[in-house]
UniProtKB/TrEMBL annotation:
Gene3D superfamilies: Cytochrome P450
Protein's recorded name: Cholesterol 24-hydroxylase
Species of provenance: Danionella cerebrum
Matching CDD domains: CYP46A1-like (cd20613)
One protein family per Pfam: p450
Keywords on record: Cell projection, Cholesterol metabolism, Endoplasmic reticulum, Heme, Iron, Lipid metabolism, Membrane, Metal-binding, Microsome, Monooxygenase, Oxidoreductase, Steroid metabolism, Sterol metabolism, Synapse, Transmembrane, Transmembrane helix
């Protein structure tokens, strides 16, 4: 009896494996007319290439760039039974990203719902795939990013940036090199906590912050979770996975505490700011949500804004400082503009921001070479012809801003840092420059982040002279977002 059952199970398992292999073969045949690099493995597809890149701390985006140069503007990648079509064709980029009809790829964004079994981004603004659910959230969040509200944040941007200036005064006095990424990360985290959630934590005074470490761990977990499906099988990863799960819980627990505190303040008739946290609660109120499921969605958006609201801006600022240090003439011109606009005044006004034309070009060129959120995906629900190739429905379409923005056919001498590309008289890039994505799902906080970046960078250029410590790496570290691997180590002295 046992032998017969065992034989039955073995036969059923064999049939299941055979059926799966036949399905994988069907997917290959369906998409193999599209050029692409040779698969590492029949079943695994190109997954081993991604795993090797992670283990070697290489930058997978450089591999994607090389494949784009080798195989053209439309090429295919495979992972198990899953086909990904990587597209660097401006017309298709425009058609797909500018339309609400093409939803985010569920196979990617559903994975970010949880992180190793712990709820992470859930159905927040970035990961919500249903257009109606996303649109309701976006509509209610819009007032927190309106022009009038953003203008009111200039005082906070100035205040938090002044804390950095005070810290840099200490560093300059001590005459010791400092890691700029850590310092600007403290500032952007202070800003998002204050303007989004009404909490002042002053991270520059803290030697070890659990929040900064939690954000870093969650981003690291995203990369592991999305790119290496076998990471949980290896004992060497178990410790870091537990740390990632604890970090996820810390962020959600913090969100719960801050949300409850704001609820009590509103119920007691206290004045509350019209910030992101208030909008999160307003979402719940307008949608008449009371269930634990809807409560979790509020936490989803808390975690989304906590991470996205500071990490990318800090990385952009660090890369900008790195490139200014590497390009003395650009540094000199940017500083001259800041000195002309600000003179000796400390506080930067909203009107001043519009006068920083060259500084804006520097920040845009920084995002061209170093898009801190380097890509996005959409699900192709219908057959489409892209660049003369028929792409059957039922696959993921991947758009890499990192790759598009480093292709020679779109940007001459693409690895050269050249802010003149974004001069008002220069030709505008046609759907090949999208560091904040495009279309209806474009980043809600892009104006916020660029205002903040201008204030921090302008104050730095006005008050200090910085130079890069020789011998450090200018490589990029991929932590889900892109950041300078070295941390951008500088020597600082007051401006003469």
């Amino acid at each position: 009896m046992i032998s017969a059952l065992l034989l039955y199970l073995l036969a059923a398992g064999f049939i299941a494996v055979l059926a799966y292999c036949l399905y994988v073969l069907h997917v290959h045949q369906k998409y193999d007319h599209i050029p692409g690099p040779p698969r590492d493995n029949f079943l695994l597809g190109h997954t081993p290439s991604f795993s090797r890149s992670m283990q070697s701390e290489g930058l997978i985006h450089d591999q994607l760039l090389q494949w784009a140069e080798d195989y053209g503007p439309v090429y295919r990648l495979n992972s198990f039974h899953y086909a990904v079509i990587v597209v660097h064709c401006p017309e298709a980029t425009k058609k797909i990203l500018m339309s609400p009809s093409y939803l985010k790829d569920p196979l990617v964004y559903k994975q970010l719902f949880n992180l190793f079994g712990k709820r992470f981004l859930g159905n927040g603004l970035i990961t919500a795939m249903d257009h109606d659910i996303w649109y309701r959230q976006r509509r209610i969040m819009d007032p927190a990013f309106s022009s009038s509200y953003l203008r009111s944040l200039m005082g906070t941007f100035n205040e938090m940036s002044e804390r950095l200036m005070d810290k840099l005064d200490e560093v300059a006095t001590q005459k010791t090199p400092t890691e700029m990424l850590k310092l600007v990360n403290c500032v952007t985290l202070d800003v998002i906590c204050k303007v989004a959630f009404g909490v002042d934590l002053n991270f520059l005074t803290q030697t070890e912050s659990p929040f900064q470490r939690a954000v870093e761990l969650c981003l690291q977990g995203m990369v592991m979770y999305l790119r290496d499906p076998f990471c949980r099988l290896f004992p060497k990863n178990w410790k870091i996975i537990e740390e990632i799960k604890e970090a996820t819980e810390l962020l959600r627990r913090t969100g719960e505490e801050w949300i409850e505190k704001r609820k009590r303040a509103a119920e007691n008739g206290e004045d509350v700011p019209q910030d992101i946290l208030t909008q999160i609660l307003k979402t719940a109120d307008e949608e008449k949500v009371t269930s634990s499921k809807d409560h979790e969605q509020m936490l989803d958006n808390f975690v989304t804004f906590f991470i996205a609201g500071q990490e990318t801006t800090a990385n952009q600022l660090s890369f900008a400082i790195m490139e200014l240090g590497r390009n003395p003439e650009i540094y000199k011109r940017a500083k001259a503009e800041v000195d002309e606009v600000l003179g000796t005044k400390r506080d930067i006004s909203f009107e001043d921001l519009g006068k920083f034309s060259y500084l804006s070009q520097v920040l845009k060129e920084t995002l061209r070479l170093y898009p801190t959120a380097p890509g996005t995906n959409r699900w192709l629900h219908e057959d489409m012809v892209i660049n003369g190739l028929k792409v059957p429905a039922g696959c993921s379409i991947a758009f890499s801003s990192y790759v598009s923005q480093r292709l020679d056919k779109f940007f001459k001498d693409p690895l050269k840092f050249d802010p003149e590309r974004f001069d008002a008289s220069a030709p505008k890039p046609y759907f090949c420059y999208f560091p904040f994505a495009l279309g209806p799902r474009i980043c809600l906080g892009q104006v916020f982040s660029q205002m903040e970046a201008k204030v921090v960078l302008a104050k730095l250029l006005q008050r200090f002279e910085f130079s890069l410590v020789p011998g450090q790496s200018f490589d990029i570290k991929d932590t889900g977002t892109l950041r300078p691997k070295s941390g951008v180590i500088c020597t600082i002295k007051p401006s003469s």
